[in-house]
Amino acid sequence: MFERYTERARRVIFFARYEASQFGHVRIETEHLLLGLAREDKSFLGRLMGVEDPCPSIRKAVEERSPAREKVSTSIDLPMSDSCKLILGYSQAEAERVHHRHIGTEHLLLGMLKLQDCVGARILDDLGVTWDKLDAQIRRGVVQTLPEVPTESGVIFYLDRIELLLEDGVPKGELLRAYVRLKLLVEKVEKILNDE
């Protein structure tokens, strides 16, 4: 089920499961997924929120909306709530929409924000993180989680990103710098291919 997920996105699921057990819940809810995202990708969420460490404010908001009960053992299976399953589906759709082969933490965030009517999305909205703001950063290539892709498809992944950026329009100075770097890279690839 999680083959297309980056390692970081998989860790988010792992952390969400842990958070659910710590809150004494028998299912992984959207707020647990949000805590997993904050724990795994705090620098990215921090940039979106305009803070260095988003974890305390996210945790406080979750605790206000979802009081903790007696902890549940992490050895039992904790299923995902229907809302979390929807977020996973939306995450996949969001990755495909922006032509990404893999599902990363940024797609999980987009999926959560797309659901809107869930605790996780409401907390993000209260903290100033919106779907439009996140989507704009992904389209501009600002998201720092993008480099984490399996090596066998990494080159194609980045070419897809460049193509998407070109469609959105890039300032001429930036385009010229990218062209020079691409030309140097093409020369390196040609050299490697010719040496074989």
Describe the protein:
Helix content is about 70%, strand content about 0%. With about 200 residues, the protein is mainly alpha-helical. Helix 1 packs across helix 2 and helix 2 packs antiparallel against helix 6. It starts with 6 loop residues before the first helix and ends with a helix. The relative contact order is 0.13. About 5% of the residues have low confidence.
Q: Sketch the topology as an H/E string, one letter per element.
A: HHHHHHHHHH
**Overall body shape:** elongated
Number of helical stretches of at least 4 residues: 10
Q: Structural class of the helix and strand makeup?
A: mainly alpha
Beta-strand proportion: under 5%
Number of strands: 0
Mean pLDDT: 83
- Gyration radius from CA atoms, angstroms: 19 Å
From the N-terminal CA to the C-terminal CA, the straight-line distance is 38 Å
Low-confidence stretches: 142-153
Which terms would index this structure?
196 residues; single chain; mainly alpha
In short, what is this structure?
By secondary structure, the protein is an all-alpha fold. The chain contains ten helices and no strands.
Furnish the topology, listing elements before pairings.
Elements: H1 7-22, H2 30-40, H3 42-49, H4 55-65, H5 82-97, H6 105-115, H7 119-126, H8 131-140, H9 151-168, H10 172-195
Helix pairs in contact: 1-2, 2-4, 2-6, 2-7, 4-7, 5-6, 6-7, 6-8
